[in-house]
Amino acid sequence: MIITSSRKPSQRTRSFLRDLERTLNLPYIQRGKLSLKELFDIDKHILLIGEFKGNPGTLVVYDVENCKRLSSFITVKLQREICGSKIYNKDGVKLVVDDKLWEKEGFKEIYDNYDKFLFRHLNLNEDAEIILRLERDPKYLFAMQFYKGRAKIGPLIRVKSLKIFDSLY
């Protein structure tokens, strides 16, 4: 899986992409003039971060093999806003789901979709964690926070919505 952005991303979106690159240990490719088709030639699984009013606003995962895409509206806090510094994670991550989330109606289906499109394509490891947790604000489905041990190491991603499409475009 590779990480990229929409064309001409803002500085905040580029910072978020670099945070994901450091935390998930996945390659970040600057999009420039590359078309989606050219990106699909590089890798069959693409994580594309889009913008809304100059901020990271969409998370789209393309699965070329199955001709599907998962699209989510998100809000984020950058690594520097959470940790105050750049933290590199070369070990991969482990996925942990907060028990309260399993009690939320419809979460199992949401989790299954994220697992199929995103989580199984990450470098998973026992040392670092992605913790999925319930948000107090009901407008969010859940939040993703990255940890190494007890320390937060990455950006906070709050997911507002999720849709699956049967086409790549």
Would you give an account of this structure?
The chain has five helices and eight strands, in the order E-H-H-E-E-E-H-E-H-H-E-E-E. It has one domain (about 1-165): Rossmann fold (3-Layer(aba) Sandwich). It is about 25% helix and about 40% strand. The protein starts with a strand and ends with a strand. With about 170 residues, it is an alpha+beta fold. It has an eight-stranded mixed β-sheet with strand order 1-2-3-4-8-7-6-5. The model has no long low-confidence stretch (mean pLDDT about 90).
Secondary-structure class = alpha+beta
Biggest β-sheet: strands ordered side by side in the sheet:
1-2-3-4-8-7-6-5
- Mean pLDDT across the residues is 89
- The count of strands amounts to 8
CATH class: Alpha Beta
- Assess the beta-strand content as a share of residues: 35-45%
Any idea what the CATH superfamily is called? Brix domain
Largest sheet: 8 strands, mixed
Spans with pLDDT under 50 lasting ≥5 residues? none
Which structural traits does this protein have?
alpha+beta, 169 residues, Rossmann fold
Topology of this protein?
Elements: E1 2-5, H1 11-24, H2 36-42, E2 45-52, E3 55-63, E4 68-77, H3 79-82, E5 93-97, H4 99-103, H5 107-117, E6 124-133, E7 142-148, E8 151-165
Parallel strand pairs: 1-2, 5-6
Antiparallel strand pairs: 2-3, 3-4, 4-8, 6-7, 7-8
In short:
Residues 1-169 form the Brix domain. By secondary structure, this protein is α+β, with helices and mostly antiparallel strands.
